[in-house]
Amino acid sequence: MSRILYSLSGTDISRPFSPHCWKAAMALHHKGLEFDEKLLSFTEIPTVEGGVTKLVPLLRDEDTLVSDSFQIALYLEETYPFAPSLFGGEGGKAMARFVEGYSQSTIHPAISAIALMDIYNMVAPADQAHFRKTREAMFGKPLEEIFPDREGAIAAFPAKLQPLRHMLRSQPFIGGASPLFGDYIVFGALQWLKITTGSVHLPADDPALDWFERCLDLYNGLGRTVA
User: Which Pfam families does the record associate with it (predicted)?
Assistant: First the structure.
Protein backbone atom coordinates (compact mmCIF):
# COMPACT_ATOMS: atom_id res chain seq x y z
CA MET A 1 0.00 0.00 0.00
CA SER A 2 1.27 3.45 -0.86
CA ARG A 3 -0.19 5.17 2.23
CA ILE A 4 1.75 4.66 5.47
CA LEU A 5 1.25 6.19 8.89
CA TYR A 6 4.33 6.01 11.08
CA SER A 7 3.31 5.81 14.74
CA LEU A 8 4.89 5.31 18.16
CA SER A 9 4.90 2.24 20.36
CA GLY A 10 6.91 0.74 23.17
CA THR A 11 8.26 -2.79 23.35
CA ASP A 12 4.76 -4.12 22.56
CA ILE A 13 4.25 -3.08 18.95
CA SER A 14 0.54 -3.92 19.15
CA ARG A 15 -0.05 -0.94 21.46
CA PRO A 16 0.53 2.45 19.79
CA PHE A 17 0.17 5.07 22.50
CA SER A 18 1.04 8.52 21.13
CA PRO A 19 -1.91 10.95 21.40
CA HIS A 20 -0.83 12.67 18.21
CA CYS A 21 -0.66 9.41 16.27
CA TRP A 22 -4.14 8.49 17.44
CA LYS A 23 -5.41 11.84 16.11
CA ALA A 24 -3.92 11.07 12.71
CA ALA A 25 -5.24 7.49 12.64
CA MET A 26 -8.75 8.65 13.52
CA ALA A 27 -8.54 11.35 10.85
CA LEU A 28 -7.61 8.79 8.18
CA HIS A 29 -10.51 6.55 9.21
CA HIS A 30 -12.85 9.57 9.24
CA LYS A 31 -11.87 10.19 5.60
CA GLY A 32 -12.36 6.52 4.77
CA LEU A 33 -8.77 6.15 3.59
CA GLU A 34 -6.90 2.86 3.74
CA PHE A 35 -3.40 2.89 5.19
CA ASP A 36 -0.75 0.73 6.76
CA GLU A 37 0.45 1.73 10.21
CA LYS A 38 4.15 1.21 10.92
CA LEU A 39 5.03 1.23 14.61
CA LEU A 40 8.36 2.73 15.65
CA SER A 41 10.23 3.19 18.90
CA PHE A 42 11.48 6.64 19.94
CA THR A 43 14.98 5.94 18.65
CA GLU A 44 13.79 4.43 15.35
CA ILE A 45 11.91 7.52 14.25
CA PRO A 46 14.94 9.38 12.77
CA THR A 47 15.87 6.27 10.75
CA VAL A 48 12.82 6.26 8.46
CA GLU A 49 12.14 8.27 5.31
CA GLY A 50 15.65 9.67 5.19
CA GLY A 51 15.46 11.14 8.68
CA VAL A 52 12.88 13.74 7.66
CA THR A 53 11.54 14.00 11.22
CA LYS A 54 12.35 13.12 14.81
CA LEU A 55 8.68 13.02 15.73
CA VAL A 56 5.62 11.03 14.72
CA PRO A 57 3.03 10.88 13.34
CA LEU A 58 4.50 10.99 9.88
CA LEU A 59 2.25 10.24 6.90
CA ARG A 60 3.49 9.03 3.54
CA ASP A 61 0.78 9.40 0.90
CA GLU A 62 2.21 8.27 -2.44
CA ASP A 63 5.16 10.69 -2.90
CA THR A 64 4.05 13.16 -0.22
CA LEU A 65 5.36 13.21 3.35
CA VAL A 66 3.48 15.14 6.03
CA SER A 67 4.39 15.36 9.72
CA ASP A 68 2.47 16.81 12.70
CA SER A 69 -1.06 15.59 13.38
CA PHE A 70 -2.77 18.90 12.65
CA GLN A 71 -0.85 19.34 9.40
CA ILE A 72 -1.83 15.80 8.44
CA ALA A 73 -5.49 16.65 9.07
CA LEU A 74 -5.20 19.81 6.96
CA TYR A 75 -3.48 17.86 4.19
CA LEU A 76 -6.20 15.19 4.18
CA GLU A 77 -8.91 17.83 4.10
CA GLU A 78 -7.35 19.56 1.10
CA THR A 79 -6.29 16.43 -0.78
CA TYR A 80 -9.52 14.47 -0.29
CA PRO A 81 -12.24 17.16 -0.37
CA PHE A 82 -15.00 14.75 -1.40
CA ALA A 83 -14.48 12.49 1.61
CA PRO A 84 -16.22 13.42 4.90
CA SER A 85 -14.89 16.72 6.22
CA LEU A 86 -12.64 16.74 9.27
CA PHE A 87 -13.53 20.34 10.09
CA GLY A 88 -16.87 21.25 8.53
CA GLY A 89 -15.48 24.49 7.12
CA GLU A 90 -13.04 27.22 8.06
CA GLY A 91 -14.78 27.83 11.38
CA GLY A 92 -14.19 24.21 12.28
CA LYS A 93 -10.47 24.59 11.59
CA ALA A 94 -10.34 27.58 13.92
CA MET A 95 -12.32 25.69 16.56
CA ALA A 96 -9.94 22.74 16.30
CA ARG A 97 -6.98 25.06 16.89
CA PHE A 98 -8.62 26.19 20.13
CA VAL A 99 -9.29 22.58 21.16
CA GLU A 100 -5.67 21.72 20.40
CA GLY A 101 -4.51 24.60 22.59
CA TYR A 102 -6.76 23.49 25.44
CA SER A 103 -5.67 19.88 25.12
CA GLN A 104 -1.95 20.53 24.97
CA SER A 105 -1.86 23.23 27.64
CA THR A 106 -4.26 21.64 30.14
CA ILE A 107 -4.94 17.97 29.47
CA HIS A 108 -1.50 16.84 28.30
CA PRO A 109 0.42 18.21 31.32
CA ALA A 110 -2.13 16.58 33.64
CA ILE A 111 -1.66 13.25 31.87
CA SER A 112 2.11 13.55 31.96
CA ALA A 113 1.93 13.96 35.74
CA ILE A 114 0.14 10.60 35.91
CA ALA A 115 1.74 8.59 33.12
CA LEU A 116 5.40 9.66 32.94
CA MET A 117 6.88 6.60 34.63
CA ASP A 118 4.35 4.27 32.97
CA ILE A 119 5.61 5.44 29.59
CA TYR A 120 9.20 4.97 30.69
CA ASN A 121 8.46 1.40 31.74
CA MET A 122 6.76 0.61 28.40
CA VAL A 123 9.81 1.25 26.24
CA ALA A 124 13.04 -0.65 25.55
CA PRO A 125 16.30 0.21 27.34
CA ALA A 126 17.66 2.33 24.48
CA ASP A 127 14.44 4.29 24.41
CA GLN A 128 14.43 4.60 28.19
CA ALA A 129 17.81 6.29 27.95
CA HIS A 130 16.46 8.67 25.30
CA PHE A 131 13.28 9.34 27.27
CA ARG A 132 15.20 10.01 30.48
CA LYS A 133 17.73 12.29 28.81
CA THR A 134 15.14 14.43 27.02
CA ARG A 135 12.73 14.74 29.95
CA GLU A 136 15.42 15.45 32.52
CA ALA A 137 16.82 18.16 30.25
CA MET A 138 13.34 19.63 29.90
CA PHE A 139 12.49 19.66 33.62
CA GLY A 140 15.96 19.99 35.14
CA LYS A 141 15.61 17.12 37.60
CA PRO A 142 15.78 13.31 37.73
CA LEU A 143 12.92 11.55 35.99
CA GLU A 144 11.62 10.05 39.22
CA GLU A 145 11.38 13.51 40.81
CA ILE A 146 9.55 15.34 38.03
CA PHE A 147 6.04 14.37 39.18
CA PRO A 148 6.35 13.00 42.73
CA ASP A 149 2.62 12.99 43.58
CA ARG A 150 1.00 10.62 41.07
CA GLU A 151 -2.01 9.93 43.27
CA GLY A 152 -2.63 13.64 43.69
CA ALA A 153 -2.42 14.08 39.91
CA ILE A 154 -4.99 11.30 39.42
CA ALA A 155 -7.35 12.93 41.93
CA ALA A 156 -6.99 16.30 40.19
CA PHE A 157 -7.42 14.98 36.65
CA PRO A 158 -11.24 14.93 36.27
CA ALA A 159 -11.41 18.69 36.85
CA LYS A 160 -9.27 19.26 33.75
CA LEU A 161 -12.15 18.03 31.59
CA GLN A 162 -14.79 20.43 32.88
CA PRO A 163 -14.94 22.37 29.57
CA LEU A 164 -15.74 19.11 27.81
CA ARG A 165 -18.54 18.32 30.27
CA HIS A 166 -19.99 21.80 29.83
CA MET A 167 -20.13 21.29 26.07
CA LEU A 168 -21.70 17.84 26.44
CA ARG A 169 -24.79 19.41 28.01
CA SER A 170 -25.68 20.64 24.52
CA GLN A 171 -24.28 18.13 22.04
CA PRO A 172 -22.84 14.61 21.88
CA PHE A 173 -19.52 15.52 20.25
CA ILE A 174 -17.18 18.49 20.06
CA GLY A 175 -18.05 18.55 16.37
CA GLY A 176 -21.79 18.71 17.17
CA ALA A 177 -24.04 15.82 16.20
CA SER A 178 -21.07 13.82 14.92
CA PRO A 179 -17.32 13.90 15.56
CA LEU A 180 -14.81 16.15 13.83
CA PHE A 181 -11.06 16.55 14.22
CA GLY A 182 -11.57 18.47 17.46
CA ASP A 183 -12.97 15.29 18.99
CA TYR A 184 -9.96 13.29 17.86
CA ILE A 185 -7.63 15.79 19.53
CA VAL A 186 -9.11 15.21 22.99
CA PHE A 187 -9.76 11.53 22.30
CA GLY A 188 -6.09 11.06 21.46
CA ALA A 189 -5.11 12.51 24.83
CA LEU A 190 -7.43 10.23 26.80
CA GLN A 191 -6.45 7.21 24.70
CA TRP A 192 -2.81 7.99 25.55
CA LEU A 193 -3.72 7.98 29.25
CA LYS A 194 -5.72 4.75 28.96
CA ILE A 195 -3.10 2.79 27.06
CA THR A 196 -0.16 3.88 29.21
CA THR A 197 -1.82 3.58 32.63
CA GLY A 198 -4.73 1.21 32.07
CA SER A 199 -7.43 3.76 32.96
CA VAL A 200 -8.74 7.21 32.08
CA HIS A 201 -9.19 7.85 35.81
CA LEU A 202 -12.74 9.21 35.53
CA PRO A 203 -15.84 8.26 37.58
CA ALA A 204 -18.22 5.74 36.01
CA ASP A 205 -21.02 8.33 35.77
CA ASP A 206 -18.86 11.05 34.20
CA PRO A 207 -20.30 12.50 30.95
CA ALA A 208 -16.71 12.89 29.73
CA LEU A 209 -16.26 9.14 30.10
CA ASP A 210 -19.49 8.53 28.15
CA TRP A 211 -18.12 10.73 25.34
CA PHE A 212 -14.82 8.81 25.39
CA GLU A 213 -16.70 5.51 25.13
CA ARG A 214 -18.59 6.82 22.10
CA CYS A 215 -15.27 7.75 20.51
CA LEU A 216 -13.87 4.28 21.25
CA ASP A 217 -16.79 2.81 19.30
CA LEU A 218 -16.08 4.85 16.15
CA TYR A 219 -14.85 3.09 13.00
CA ASN A 220 -15.82 -0.39 14.11
CA GLY A 221 -14.33 0.09 17.54
CA LEU A 222 -10.91 1.24 16.35
CA GLY A 223 -10.04 2.67 19.77
CA ARG A 224 -10.89 -0.62 21.45
CA THR A 225 -8.34 -2.58 19.40
CA VAL A 226 -5.66 -1.60 21.96
CA ALA A 227 -6.43 -2.64 25.51
Answer: GST_C_7, GST_N_2
